[in-house]
Amino acid sequence: GDTPLIRIKCLSELTGFDILGKCEFLNPGGSVKDRVALKIIQNAEREGKISRNTVPRCRIFEGTSGSTGISLAYIARSLGYEAEIVLPDDTATEKSELMSKMGATVIKVRPVGIANRLHYVNVARERSRQFELNNINDQSSSTKGSGRSLFVDQFENPLNLIAHYEGTGPEIWKQTKGKIFGFVSGVGTGGTLSGVGGFLRSKDPDVKIIVVDPPGSGVFNKVKEGVMFSETEVEGKRRRHQMDTVVEGIGLNRMTYNFTRSIDLIDDAIKVTDQEAITMSRYIVQKEGLFLGSSSIVNLVGALKFCKKFNLERLKVVCILCDGGQRNLSKFWNDDYLIQKGFRIDDHLSFDPISYF
Question: Required cofactors, per record (predicted)?
Fold first, then answer.
């Protein structure tokens, strides 16, 4: 928490707005998910669901595509818990390696839809249930209370959005001195958008809440059409994975509790293509020296597109810089990988973002 809010100079000068980035990649675990992980663990401790440094140790379970798992791994280790993370096997390798280095058990499963019992979230839930059952059956009276499990359930857990309503949102309001025109965010679970958006709207009903959406996600169409579907579903294609995109960490194809809470807050939705995200990432690192992850970059593209709609100046638009580029080296920041996938690595010396996006 208490991360800085910085002005993205190059985009601000192009649009006349003050485009501001909340540097969540500076949290100890490297992403905005630190807030959620810590909130859920601390609440479970207060309710007596888990206890630190027991023998056997309590274990924290979660199904995630990356950043939440990293946050849980380091927080669990520091507080005396075990962590077990289930993730899709096409997640960037550096993410799973980080979790393992911090002592987490990493389980990789093939990417399938949420209705499948082998979806990473469903596998994590079941493994948590089995772990607790086994320990209850095995424990003697002397170890009662140890070896408990906690399934984090970030998609459906209300503490996800509460972490942002009580933390991230008030920080942004204070840092902008209550002068904010718009808030731009992608949706992974919906917690950031619902929590921050809900707090800002409670302080100023005129704040614009904008959601940005990468390829393969149904959020844009949910906002625009009222039905949650993606282009690939419309075309009748069978997708290999829920998110047919090089962007990791955002995008959603189901109505989670945390996303549902944001529906009435959202003013507009903006699509961002993979190519736009790739191009913006290289532009930002050259102009600002910011080495950002794909989710952060999608938010910046969305902020730029939003600001282009208005002939206004010096109004503040805030987006979340939720992750750094270090955990995207094998895919999003790998030029050879992207070229093999058919993407361009543009020449930024003669690049004009206003006409491009």
Answer: pyridoxal 5'-phosphate
Q: Are 55 and 351 in contact (CB under 8 A)?
A: no
Q: Which domains does the chain have, with CATH numbers?
A: 5-27+158-356 (3.40.50.1100), 33-151 (3.40.50.1100)
Q: Which CA distances in Å does 161 have to 32, 107, 261, 282, 312?
A: 12, 26, 9, 31, 31
Q: pLDDT digits over 332-343, tens only? A: 999 999 999 999
Handedness of CA 267, 268, 269, 275 (dihedral sign): negative
* C-alpha to C-alpha distance for 140 and 76, rounded to whole angstroms: 25
Which helix (H) or strand (E) segment holds residue 221: the answer is helix 219-225
Which residues in the chain show pLDDT less than 50? 141-142, 234-242
Q: Which residues of 290-308 are buried (b: 16+ CB within 10 A; e: fewer)?
A: bbbbbbbbbbbbbbbbbbe
Whole-angstrom Cα Rg for the chain: 20
How far is residue 187's CA from residue 198's CA, in Å, rounded to a whole number?
14
